[in-house]
Structure formats: structure tokens, C-alpha cells
Amino acid sequence: MSSSTVSVSAGTPTQHPFQRKIDDIKPSKTDINFVVMDYLVSEGYPRAAEKFAKEANIQLPLEEESIQSRVEIRQAIHAGDIDTAVTKINDLNPQILDTDAALHFALLRLQLIELIRSCTSSATSDVTPALSFASSQLAPRAATNPDFLKDLELTMTLLIFLPATGKLQKELAELLEPSLRRDVASRVNEAILMSMGARGEARMRSLVRLRQWAETKARESNRDIPPVMSLGLQDAEERPIGHNGESADVMVQ
């Protein structure tokens, strides 16, 4: 055996046996298409779902109009237009908020936060609208639930600290982060899906969490698995793009 051959062989990385087992498993294209379509429909990406259905030669499981309604509600929440979002939710199904007190309170609190933003940013700093809304809409609900009361008290603290310059403490700053809107929007989307008799969560999300759980258990048991195991969701090719630049980023929180 020549020295050059030995050099090449020594420099070739050895694939972990566990990774070879993964590579031997070939999921069917039908199953993959089903999971991708389920994600696009559940998360509310109608243009991407329509394009994927045509490319994969499969049928949309729900009418596009029902997906579009959830998209409009999500966009309204992300934009801070909570009043419009609540109106659209009630137009779609008034029972959703009537039967989910926690979700309804979360939306009302977002609306209060937007009022506080508006009141404290104006030249007059008239906080009357925020106080009136909190008294009429949130206080009665908070009186019946300790968690609601705690959230309301924290939110009202913004009236004191938001107009001041300087950095807010972490709990208050988080109330103003876009992530709070996204979290509530996700909960609303799940509630709408469940009201329609569908799964409240995309199968892809539950599968990724299951995979993370399995890896944690394997490491706790000292199983022979690679030190780093990527979820494989980072590549651009795995972010379906629909018409009008609609992106369906695969994110599991």
C-alpha cells in the first residue's frame, strides 16, 4: 500500500455508526409531503401551501379561505392591531374566546399594552384610555384568577416606567418584545384549528420535540450517539417559499 493511499485513508473522517443507521432509513416521499403540507396549512401559509400542492401533485387538506382567515388574524396580532384580531376571531367563531378565558385575557392584555404605548408616547401622556380599558376589560377577569391579576399588575407598571428614559427591567421589557405577540398569535392559531376539529399543532413541531426528547434520554442513558446531532432545519432549502415572498420558516419553540 503506497504512502499516498495511507495518507488519504487517515484523513478521511469515519462516519459514526448511529449516523449510518439514520442514512439507511429512507422515509417515503408521501410521508414527507404529508408532514410539509400539514405544517404549511397548520401554521397558515396559504400561498406556500398552494405552490407546494401543485409541485407535489397533492390536494390541499383545507380550503384556502380558512387558511387566509388565520393569516389575517396572525398579521393583525403581529402588527399590534388586537381589536381587529379579536373582531376577526369572533367573526370566525365567537365560541373560541368565550370558552378560553386565558387566551381571551392574553389578547386583552396585548391590547392594553398597545394602549399604554400610545398613551405614554404622546405629548400629553394622557393615560386615561389605558386605565379605563384595564378597569372595564381586565380587572373583572383578574379578580377571579391570581395569574391574571399578576399579569395585569405587571402590565400596569409600564405606566410608571415606560415614559422614563433608561433601560426597563427584564420582565417589563419582555412585554414590549415582538415575541409576546408571536406567542399569543400562535396560541390563537392553535385554538382556531382545534375549534375546526383539526390538530392544534403542526405535526412537524411535535415530531421535532419528540426527537429532542429522545436525544436527551439517549444522552442521559449514555447511549453511543454522535456528540452533535443537527435537527437539519437550518438550510434555506427547508424554508418553503410561497408566492409574494411568503416564507414558512420552520421554527420550534
Describe the structure.
Residues 1-20 are annotated as: Disordered. With 253 residues, this protein is mostly helical. Helices cover 66% and strands 0% of the residues. It contains 14 helices and no strands. The chain has helices spanning 3-11, 17-24, 29-43, 46-56, 64-78, 82-92, 95-98, 101-121, 128-142, 146-156, 158-161, 170-175, 178-195, 203-220. Helix 5 runs antiparallel to helix 6 (82-92), helix 5 (64-78) runs antiparallel to helix 13 (178-195) and helix 8 packs antiparallel against helix 13 (178-195). Residues 1-10 and 234-253 have low confidence and may be disordered.
Overview in brief:
With 253 residues, the chain is mostly helical. It is built from 14 helices and no strands. Involved in the proteasome-dependent degradation of fructose-1,6-bisphosphatase.
Rg of Cα set: 24 Å
Nearest-integer average pLDDT: 78
Q: Give the helix proportion (percent range).
A: 55-70%
Strand content: under 5%
Main beta-sheet annotation: none
Oligomer: single chain
- Please give the alpha-carbon distance between the first and last residues: 52 Å
Question: Key terms for this structure?
Answer:
253 residues, mainly alpha, 14 helices, 66% helix, disordered N terminus, disordered C terminus
Produce the secondary structure layout.
Layout (H helix, E strand, L loop, with lengths): L2 H9 L5 H8 L4 H15 L2 H11 L7 H15 L3 H11 L2 H4 L2 H21 L6 H15 L3 H11 L1 H4 L8 H6 L2 H18 L7 H18 L33
